[in-house]
Amino acid sequence: MKVIYVKTVPGGAEAGEIKEVADGYARNYLIPAGIAILGTPEALAKQAKIKKSAEKQKQSEKDWAKSANTKLNNVVLEIKVKTAEGSDNLYAAINESDVKKRLMEKEIDIRDAKVTFSEPIKSLGKYSADIDLGNNIKNSIKIKVIEE
Fold first, then answer.
1. I need a labelling partner for 2 at 20 to 30 A (CA). Which of 39, 42, 59, 143 fits?
2. Half-sphere CA count of 31, side-chain side, radius 13 A
3. Dihedral Cα 117, 120, 125, 127, nearest 10 deg
4. What residue spans define the domains of the chain?
């Protein structure tokens, strides 16, 4: 069965691509999930429009990632936290959502970017975090954890 992919499937097909797939795969998964449409003559006529739309979306994501990457250059994020009395240990470790929230406060939108830490942040000190913005664009930021 001939289908036209409407969405990009990692390891499968790009949006707008026409592929021959098994009937059951198309009827039971691709079409109901909105990933592909049936390759009818009318749909084949729309295929160019779908492909152009997908390319536009991909370009806007790439532009966003480049802009966010520029804003992340030389960022030092200060996070104030409560610690156990007489200790440098934190009550709760700093995680990805804490970093994203602090960056949003600085008006740096990293959306669904993946934030990874070189080591778990469980005490006061200086750390670094890697941010993968997608489209092979990555950056690193410094995190300074200080007592509230």
1. 59
2. 16
3. -10
4. 2-61, 73-147
CATH topology of domain 73-147: Ribosomal Protein L9; domain 2 (3.10.430)
* Tens of each residue's pLDDT in the chain, 148 residues: 999 998 888 888 888 888 999 999 999 999 999 999 998 888 888 878 878 888 888 888 889 888 888 888 888 999 998 888 878 888 888 999 899 999 888 888 887 889 999 888 989 999 999 999 888 888 899 999 998 8
Question: Rounded to whole angstroms, what are the CA distances from 104 to 2, 58, 101?
Answer: 44, 23, 5
Q: In this structure, are residues 11 and 30 in contact, taking their beta carbons and an 8 Å threshold?
A: no
DSSP conformation class of 6:
S
Q: Hey, do 2-61 and 73-147 end up sharing a CATH topology, with the first three levels equal?
A: no
Q: What percent of the chain has pLDDT over 70?
A: 100
